[in-house]
Design a protein that fits this description.
alpha/beta, seven-stranded mixed beta sheet, D-Maltodextrin-Binding Protein, domain 2, transport, 340 residues
Length: 340
């Protein structure tokens, strides 16, 4: 039993002593500020940066504009053949390997709200890209739940395919000629435009206003190269995960964020104090599902799934569920382009 010690009869109160102790404790706490991050320019908060963030100074040599996809046939994927019924994958090849394993292994991330994020209530992965992966599994097994999701960074997407760590990558990935030389891509499954996110009331209204500002974007993505081309006088804060840019802007460590409008809309859905401004910074972004370069049978099968969901209304139902509210309605999914 806990003992309670009573004051001795006639003892003097100790309140004054306690106040002094508390005052010393408060002063001691105030004397230990958070470690500071050196400022690059401007008047930015000096709280520590997000783990893995990189500061990239303005450049006199911005990266060259990428060649148009038409020049390398980057949008022209492999035409689907006859789609085997679920549970009846042909022997040999990658489809038989997936069927024998009993699950489709899909590379995704968990920080892209609306597309691929972890629901805080259920702890499960949700979003447009997650539903897309489940549709592929539905066509292989007849069961959309037979998926193993593996979390990848943007930088790790392509090596995961090359090393056969995953079967497919559904990770908001823009098709480029350089990437198409490394991995196989499905036909386009989503179209986006790179724009700018700023706090409401910001004086930034378009790409021309980014000169001399700090702009957050993502390591090893086409978005970073675009910012350097369009705004070479901007300082870039490059981060590893999409949500890191939201945190950095909330901490006033960057003036703007630039990436696909769809991903920016996902950030706005988490904090309505921000808004998307300005016209697209460059041309369209064509997103594809990534597959190992040497697995043509899987590329054709994924394209068969995309053909189905375009035709039976599944794509539109997915869009209306996840994307229509922040970005508005669309006439339909992007059309397929085949090279054979």
């Amino acid at each position: 039993m806990t003992q309670v010690r009573l004051p001795r009869p006639g003892a003097r109160p100790r309140a004054r002593h306690l106040v002094g102790v508390l005052a010393v404790a408060v002063l001691a706490g105030c004397a230990a500020p958070d470690p500071l991050t050196p400022m690059v320019s401007g008047t930015y908060t000096t709280r520590p940066m997000t783990d893995g963030a990189q500061i990239i100074s303005p450049t006199d040599s911005p990266p060259p504009e990428p060649p148009p996809l038409e020049s390398c046939g980057g949008l022209a994927s492999l035409r689907p053949g006859p789609q085997p019924p679920p549970g009846q994958m042909p022997p040999g090849g990658s489809l038989a390997e997936i069927a024998g394993r009993g699950r489709l292994i899909v590379g995704v991330d968990q920080n892209t709200n609306l597309f691929s994020f972890r629901d805080p209530t259920t702890g499960t992965l949700q979003g447009f890209d997650i539903d897309m992966a489940k549709e592929i599994a539905r066509d292989i097994f007849g069961d959309p739940t037979k998926v193993e999701f593996r979390l990848l960074t943007s930088a790790g997407r392509f090596s995961a395919l090359e090393n056969n760590d995953v079967d497919v990558v559904v990770h908001a990935t823009a098709i480029t000629c350089e990437r198409a030389r490394r991995v196989g891509f499905s036909t386009e499954y989503f179209r986006a435009f790179q724009r700018i996110l700023v706090p409401k009331g910001s004086d930034i209204t378009g790409p021309a206003d980014l000169a001399g500002k700090r702009v957050c974007t993502f390591i090893d993505t086409t978005s970073l190269d675009t910012v350097q081309r369009v705004a070479p006088d901007a300082t870039i804060v490059a981060v590893r995960d999409w949500d890191d840019c939201l945190v950095i802007m909330q901490k006033k460590q960057a003036d703007a964020t630039s990436t696909s409008d769809t991903l920016l809309a996902a950030l706005v859905s988490q904090d309505p104090h921000f808004q998307i401004v300005g016209p697209p910074m460059e041309g369209e972004e064509h997103w594809g599902i990534g597959v190992n370069k040497f697995k043509d049978d899987l590329v054709r099968f994924v394209n068969g799934t995309l053909e189905r969901i375009r035709a039976d209304g599944t794509w539109m139902r997915m869009y209306d569920r996840w994307i229509a509210a922040p970005l508005g309605p669309v006439a339909g999914p992007p059309p397929a382009t085949y090279g054979d």
